[in-house]
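Board notes, transcribed. Complex of a protein with zinc ion.
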Amino acid sequence: MPFKLYNALSRKKENFKPLKGKTVRFYACGPTVYAFVHIGNLRTFVFDDLLRRTFELNGYKVKEIMNLTDVDDKTINGAKDSGKTLKNYTSFYEKRFLFDVKALNILPAAKYTRATDHIQEMIKMISTLFKKKVAYKTSDGIYFNISKFKNYGKLSRLKARELKIGARVRSDEYEKNNAQDFALWKFKKEGEPSWAAPFGEGRPGWHIECSAMSIKYLGMPLDIHSGGVDLIFPHHENEIAQSEAAYGKKFARFFAEGEHLSIGGKKMAKSLGNIFTLRDIEERGFEPLDFRYLTFTAHYRSPLSFSWESLSASRNARKKLEEKALLAPKSDAKVLKKFKMEFLAALNDDLNIPKALALVWKARGRDEILYADKILGLGLDKVKKVAASAGLEALLREREVMRRDKKWREADLIRDKILKAGYIIEDTPQGARLKRAS
Ligand SMILES: [Zn+2]
């Protein structure tokens, strides 16, 4: 069954197959580790995970590389403001990001690559661009000359007249109406971290890191490059320009970008001050997987509106699905086979996860639900264990009540029940606790 995926390069759904053998070489743009990622960012990372799991359901192996941007305008400013070294500042947020990845049951990348660990690869690439006269030097850095790359704008469909030939932009992020020569390397400034380079001491611009690291680990062309929709311009556009101008080969065969999470009709963004993190939603009593479920209620190329009501509805749905997985009977083999076909067909139609989810709700057998969980990643296979221990927790609380009321016999009977289930009770100053009997 072909996997049809929308390719932002052609703006069409195309049949996806890896170029070589059965391994998909997949590069996903990762976070800038300068703050807690917000749930708008996390929607993109769950989308990457959905893509990755769908490749795997189609029988492919996936080699996924994700970068961690730990040197750019934002991280440098953040470190300065907090009085920490860049490394100290970014490693804190890097750890928190990986913690969120785990909490959301996002499969880990084969490698998370830090920009600061790949400065030499970036210098080498910039030198190549310099030699080919696609890059030039000014008083504050090395710039990429967009007029020297005739396909500039092919991903974001910039018209030639929108390009400001000869004008330069130094900042790492800028708007579409500012399509100008961009910084590959920024010369040393007082109080900024810097590295020695043949063209002058300094630090990389943002865009070069993804080209250097993706090519190093995956080669050209990548099978697929993903990220959030706001990365199409300038980030992905600049990655294509640098990579193809340097090596004269196609950079990536597919580009797949996920839409925004919106709130009250506006994009959720740190710059707009309307963000929530995973910690914020946990503080309100939700679990990270409630948010994971919420992301499956919209197609990845549609904006998804976040509200506490929609998150609450997702929590209820997820709990019901857990119950369904727990109580459903074993599946009939024929029914299961049909389900697998339909479920895969929905995903292979440009990741139609809302449709796939609707099939799960119609399913009757346990095996269908567990098969679907390879994609959903809601831990539905673990529900039984969780429910059993939840039952024991309730017994433990009941025993506490009995002891408080000095009903020792009843309390001991409950203790025996718990013991039979394979647990012992530890009485601690903080209260009684269950511990697995060894
Ligand atoms: Zn990137």
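The mean pLDDT is 93. The first helix runs from residue 39 to 57.
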